[in-house]
Amino acid sequence: MRTVVIALAATAVLIAPAHAQMRGGKGGGKQQSAAQQQENAEKKQKAAAAEKAYKAALDRIPDQKYDPWAHQR
After folding, report:
1. H or E stretch covering 6
2. Which secondary structure element, helix H or strand E, spans residue 53, and what is its range?
3. pTM value surpassing 0.85
4. What is the Cα–Cα distance from 57 to 51, expressed in whole angstroms?
């Protein structure tokens, strides 16, 4: 009887993480509310603005050739 209880306990401990992974993630396929949709749209706009600013900053960097051995010769 003791071995059966130990076996069941061990099985439950091993199955619990796998069961937690199969739950379906965020929301579980539920519809988003209007507030969540608006929040997601705002996040996308902020991300797009940040990406645009990043690309603009990269364009402002001058294209200079760098010679690390310039002062060693």
Report:
1. helix 2-21
2. helix 34-60
3. no
4. 10
